[in-house]
């Protein structure tokens, strides 16, 4: 039986740690020391690392973790320093006895990857709870295609993104779809969690499909909001582009 732990680092990042009582898999280790303390406190051996993209808050701990463990498998995009098992999407990674499908999800970065082994989806900065990542390298068309691919996963998929942005994302989502009752209910639930010092993650794909505006680009309310903020047509990529630009200055 595998347990999942969101390990907080920086102001709003999580290192995701999947583990049994002996071994652990960690995703996007932006810092080494908190993960080392977690492993030592539970007597866990680090079996592998998964990296979604090259940004430092996801990779800063790689050098220290690998230096202490020569030969440790580090999976991720080839341009990430420290990756020794380069991936591009379409592969399968086996760790802790589970097979993870590697998904190419460009948008936030061009070589962004996600890892899926039911019920877990480790999606980095592509899909957030009630949001999506900024388009630093990719195009709206790429991000729309990537999010559509993730949205097609089963509803009980656990969405393990890497930032605690949920409340701010929900505030924006309410501006996009003020009449969405599911959004109002979710905001109440997540505010209560944060008030108790609890993470809002993981989310579920069913919840994201009901409340995440970037997965709802075909909904009339989202299209209308996008048109009001500069969309020139009703295609998914144009709607996403308009609401993502709006969010960048919200």
Structure annotation, total helices: 9
- State the strand order across the main sheet: 1-2-3-4-5-6
Rg estimate, integer Å: 18 Å
What is the CATH homology-level superfamily? Ribonuclease Z/Hydroxyacylglutathione hydrolase-like
Largest sheet: 6 strands, mixed
Kindly identify the CATH topology.
Metallo-beta-lactamase, Chain A
Can you give the helix content as a percent range? 25-40%
Classification by helices and strands: alpha/beta
> How many discrete domains?
1
Encode the helix/strand succession as letters: EEEHEHHEEEEEEEEHEHHEHHH
CATH class membership: Alpha Beta
Q: Shape, please?
A: globular
Mean pLDDT, rounded to whole units?
A: 98
Into which percentage range does the β-strand content fall? 15-25%
- Report how far apart the termini are: 42 Å
Per DSSP E runs of 2 or more residues, the count of β-strands stands at 14
Description:
- By secondary structure, the chain is α/β, with parallel strands linked by helices.
- It has one domain (3-248): Metallo-beta-lactamase, Chain A (4-Layer Sandwich), CATH 3.60.15.10.
- Helices cover 35% and strands 24% of the residues.
- The chain has 9 helices and 14 strands.
- The strands form 3 sheets. A 6-stranded mixed beta sheet has the order 1-2-3-4-5-6, with helices on one face.
- A hairpin with a 2-residue loop joins β7 (92-95) and β8 (98-104).
- α4 packs across α9 (236-248) and α8 crosses α9.
- The mean pLDDT is 98.
């Amino acid at each position: 039986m595998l347990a999942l732990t969101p390990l907080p680092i920086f102001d709003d990042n999580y290192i995701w740690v999947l583990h049994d009582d002996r071994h652990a898999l960690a995703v996007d280790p932006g810092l080494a020391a908190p993960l080392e303390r977690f492993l030592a406190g539970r007597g866990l051996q680090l079996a592998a690392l998964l990296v979604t993209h090259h940004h430092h808050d996801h990779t800063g701990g790689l050098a220290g973790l690998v230096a202490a463990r020569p030969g440790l498998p580090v999976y991720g995009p080839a341009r990430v320093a420290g990756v020794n098992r380069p991936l591009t999407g379409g592969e399968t990674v086996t760790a802790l006895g589970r097979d993870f499908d590697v998904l190419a999800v460009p948008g936030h970065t061009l070589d962004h990857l996600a890892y899926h082994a039911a019920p877990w989806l480790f999606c980095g900065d592509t899909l957030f709870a009630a949001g999506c990542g900024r388009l630093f390298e990719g195009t709206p068309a790429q991000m729309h295609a990537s999010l559509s691919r993730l949205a097609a996963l089963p509803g009980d998929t656990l969405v393990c993104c890497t930032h605690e942005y949920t409340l701010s994302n929900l505030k924006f989502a309410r501006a996009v779809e003020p009449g969405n009752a599911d959004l109002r209910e979710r905001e109440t639930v997540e505010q209560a969690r944060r008030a108790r010092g609890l993470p809002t993650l993981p989310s579920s794909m069913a919840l994201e499909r009901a409340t995440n505006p970037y997965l709802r680009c075909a909904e009339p309310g989202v299209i209308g909001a996008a048109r009001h903020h500069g969309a020139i047509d009703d295609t998914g990529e144009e709607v996403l582009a308009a609401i993502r630009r709006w969010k960048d200055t919200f």
